[in-house]
Amino acid sequence: MRSILDLFRLDGKVAVVTGASSGLGVDLALALAEAGANLALGARRSERLATTRDKVAELGQIAVTVRADVARPEDCDRLVATAIEHLGRVDVLVNCAGVSDATPALKQTDSEFRRVVDVNLHGSFWMSRACGRVMRPGSSIVNVSSALALASGDVPSAGYAASKAGIIGLTRDLATQWGGRRGIRVNALAPGFFPTEMTKPLLDDDQLRGSALDRIPLGRFGESSELCGALLFLASDASSYVTGITLPVDGGWTMP
Q1: How many other CB atoms are there within 10 angstroms of residue 180's CB atom?
Q2: SS3 of residue 15 by DSSP
Q3: Is there a domain that residue 122 lies in?
Q4: pLDDT tens-digit readout, 197-245
Q5: Which residues are annotated as catalytic?
Q6: CATH code, domain carrying 73
Q7: What is the pLDDT of residues 82-122, one digit of tens each?
Q8: How many domains does the chain have?
Q9: Taking the chain, what is the end-to-end CA distance rounded to the nearest angstrom?
């Protein structure tokens, strides 16, 4: 019988992580490697992907990289095909690739809105579909949504909030479709405010920073390790009877 701590291990597993060139995507990828997984990493910035690959190697795990734009279904298929070719299987998918917007709705262009939805929502579907075709029973998909999908913030973000809310609906539907038939679990994380390249403009604004902190019961922003712990729970056998949920990791920001 496996111990409780062993349930969180990913030894012998292969994880595909998108958005693995910067920010939380790098931290989540390294957490999976530390738990024992080999990795297929995808992002648009290949030079930064190489840096993540080297960090994975320092942890004693194998990583392959693919320059991929998840808004392109063919890139998603190629990333998964590379994982199968070089690593032999796919057990975990982390849909972390994302872009944000902070433009008032009346000023946002059609192309700007479409790009946010294409990457965040469509990309999560294309990647899930590509992995769902090859995943074995017991596999796990973790979609990265956002606390802004659950509650409104102080920054205009119609495209971002809509796309991240769509991810929650996608998560529930795929969990229903693929649970009994394929044995694939599908869950989502809803991060709150974490210092990253994407959130730097917000956190550098004293007024926005202060209003965000005032709304967080824990009184601080999150650290990446705190999101990594939640990811390992959903990615591993520790959550083998959990599917279709969205887990906020936000210090209580979305609490009613």
Answers
A1: 8
A2: strand
A3: yes
A4: 777 777 777 788 888 899 999 999 999 999 999 999 999 999 999 999 9
A5: 160
A6: 3.40.50.720
A7: 999 999 999 999 999 999 988 899 999 999 999 999 999 99
A8: 1
A9: 40
Q: Residues 92, 142: contact at Cβ < 8 Å?
A: yes
Cα distance between residue 68 and residue 192, in whole Å? 26
Strands, sheet with 246-249, edge to edge from the N-terminal-most edge strand:
63-67, 38-43, 14-18, 92-95, 140-144, 185-191, 246-249
The boundaries of the domain holding residue 49 are 5-249
Beta-strand ranges (E) seen in 30-97 are 38-43, 63-67, 92-95
Rounded to two decimals, the pTM is 0.95
Q: How far is CA 43 from the centre of its chain?
A: 12
Residue type, 227: L
Q: Measuring CA to CA, which residue among 98, 103, 121 is closest to residue 17? A: 98
Which residue(s) pair with 66 in the sheet? 42
Backbone φ and ψ for 26, nearest 5 degrees, come out as: -65, -45
Tokens of 138: 């017991």
Report the sign of the C-alpha dihedral through residues 37, 42, 47, 48, in that order: negative
In a domain, 254, yes or no: no
Alpha-carbon distance 126 to 203, whole Å? 31
- Give residue 17's identity as a one-letter amino acid code: V
Q: What is the mean pLDDT of residues 33-49?
A: 96
Backbone angles phi, psi at 38, to 5 degrees: -90, 155
DSSP structural state of residue 236: S
